[in-house]
Design goal:
96 residues; mainly alpha
């Protein structure tokens, strides 16, 4: 069983961070073409990488949300592992 509260919180925090990172990517893209340099290139690549990693995280969140609702028709092993790792509720009876 997955934690619905954790899924919803992760989804909204991820969306807010994605909007901020996307706006930073666009700003750094414009700055890179205004004056191309190593630092502007590095910051552009870093913000794009963080944005893409956040998108992968949001894909896991949406997969977990769809799985809770019973809409997953073709399970994906990697998404199952990631969703279990972050959203599975562990019972206290199984812990030592």
């Amino acid at each position: 069983m997955y934690s619905n509260g954790r899924i919803k919180t992760s989804k909204w925090v991820g969306i807010i961070l994605a909007v901020i990172l996307l706006s930073q990517c666009i700003a750094h893209w414009k700055a890179f073409f205004a004056s191309a340099g190593f630092m502007s290139y590095f910051v552009l690549i870093a913000t794009l990488t963080l944005f893409l990693l956040l998108m992968v995280g949001l894909m896991v969140v949406v997969y977990a949300e769809e799985k809770v609702q019973g809409k997953v028709q073709h399970p994906r092993p990697w998404f199952d592992r990631m969703a279990d790792r972050f959203f599975l509720i562990h019972s206290d009876s199984t812990r030592g």
